[in-house]
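Hi F.,

I've been meaning to write this up properly since the lab meeting, where we talked about keeping a consistent format for the predictions we share between groups. The idea is simple: the sequence comes first, exactly as it goes in, then the structure tokens exactly as they come out, then a line or two of notes. No screenshots and no reformatting. I'm using this chain as the first example so we have something concrete to point to.
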Amino acid sequence: MRANYLHKILFTFCLLLCTTGTIIYAQDSASTTILGIRYFLPANKVPYIEVSTKKKIGRKFEPVKGVGIKVYLGEEAENNLLGKVITEKEGIAKVGLPASFKTAWDSLDEFKFIAIADPSKDEEPLTADITIKKAILVLDTISVDDVRTVTAQLKEKKGDQWIAVNDIEMKIGVKRIIGVLPVGEEASYTADSTGLATAEFKRDSLPGDAKGDLTLTAIVEDNDTYGNLLVEKSVPWGAVSNTKNNFWHRTLWSTGNRAPIWLLGIALSIIIGVWGTILYLIRQLYKIWKMGKVLDAGLIQKKV
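Output, unedited:
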């Protein structure tokens, strides 16, 4: 009896396991493409829209390339079409604001962007939208008693005025080759009641360019109301870079025509030695062939 009871428990467990696996497989097979839309304003100039497509495969999301997407400003209409793009390998595509929309852009304080993806064989058309309030990001610096301070302020457009917005989280840093280095100890800063985010610059002796200039940046990332904004400002707060470039000197890692003389000499001597040996062997074979012809001619004369 006990053995039969254990068999029943084992059979029930296997049945539940198979059922769960079937459900998970069905959910993964029925997963649809997800369409995302983001707003960017670099350097307070021409904004652009970034659209992305991805699909859940297994337990992670994979980008979907080759999806055609139309992006509209406001309602879905032909005259509101910003452009049609196709997602690339990373599943991302970008649409800039055409010059023909400048009048509409200057007249409004709030915008709605709509992205519509072309339907696939097994899916319905995908739609995503985002509503953005027009804003700009201002970056400034203050130096008092050898204390350097960086300030950033987000200003929202209301009518003909730009009003500072408080409680906005932003990153203030120094632009480097592989990213942005925070100017202080904090990774991000929040604007106070006056809309001003203040960060003390603590990156003394940070290498700059040939003139010692550094590029400060202020970034607002994925804000639900204002999107993504970035502004930069060059300041002479860095150490002068005196890095010497030895790329064009005669070193082992230089290009072929800048290789060391001794290395070129070794290479040329090897080439000359190899080809000289080959030519010498060819010459010797020719001599042997010629001697054979002479011996054959002598034997023929003796027989005659």
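Notes:
The first helix runs from residue 2 to 29.
The longest strand covers residues 147-158.

If this format works for you, I'll send the rest the same way.

G.
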